[in-house]
Amino acid sequence: MAKSKQSVNLVQRPIKKFAPIFILPTFAAFLIGFVWPFIQGIYLSFCNFNTPRDAKWVGISNYLKVFSDAGFLNAFKNTAAFAIVSIILINVIAFMIAYALTQKMRGANLFRTVFFMPNLIGGVVLGYIWSMIFDGILKRYGTYLTANGTYGFWGLVILVAWQQIGYMMIIYIAGLQSISEDMLEAAKIDGANGSQTLFQVVIPNVMPAITTCTFLTLTNSFKMFDQNMALTGGLPSVMQNGAKVNITELLALNIYSTYNINKNWHGVAQAKAVVFFILVAVLAIAQQAATRSKEVDQ
Q1: What is the pTM of this model?
Q2: In this structure, what are the phi and psi dihedrals at residue 230, rounded to the nearest 5 degrees?
Q3: I want to staple 152 with a disulfide (CB 3.0 to 4.6 A). Which of 50, 108, 207, 232 is the partner?
Q4: How far apart are CA 161 and CA 126, in angstroms?
Q5: To 5 degrees, how large is the angle CA 53–CA 54–CA 56?
Q6: pLDDT tens digits, one per residue of 226-283
């Protein structure tokens, strides 16, 4: 016992001695690449500026403009609706596919590869490809994707679902494969049918995977930018209360547009980014708490 403790100490001693050499560069990069820009971004949200060096403090006026901006409020509604639909659609379909592919079916590995492949394609490329597909279909009916907000919204849902279902499927497969065979066998012996086994044994035991996939789909939905820009660009546009509003614009694209289109609104765009960060953080924490409580209960 004494020898084993001594050997452990001999291993841990150099690790503790040289740990700062490996930790400090990473920590410094984290401070330079994240913490400092984040603090500077919060400061700039209270300023008017073209570049950070010419920033002038204006107080909370930028935030007042954010919450009076019809485009931002419309983008928030679009993003909330898009997130709800995407979370349900992606996770339900991904779980169904994962459940089917873990039932000892032939060619399961091939199907896993095929379903996962769309996740390897970049969002901008997917946006342009699917815009051509949708316009080719809708052209037969004398319309096009960006002519109607409903078309654009559901086109974006289909695109994102097609891209992300395969990734979530892999996570669900890992969760399903971690379920003990003895537990499933015991359910059969007790007379549980397929639906009872699914809802009372399988789903409770894959709650960690459900937590992870829900978190990823929630944050991805709120951070959606490249697909939105490439597929619809926020179009079509309408006038609401004297302001131009893009019907299919999500929050990330709205922040980008605010910064690049109106040079006098750089500070407002930064304030939108801070509000956006707080919103995503609060929703992610609430979702994690809600789903993890189910894991504890189970």
Answers
A1: 0.88
A2: -75, -35
A3: 232
A4: 12
A5: 120
A6: 999 999 999 999 887 777 899 999 999 999 999 987 778 899 999 999 999 999 999 9
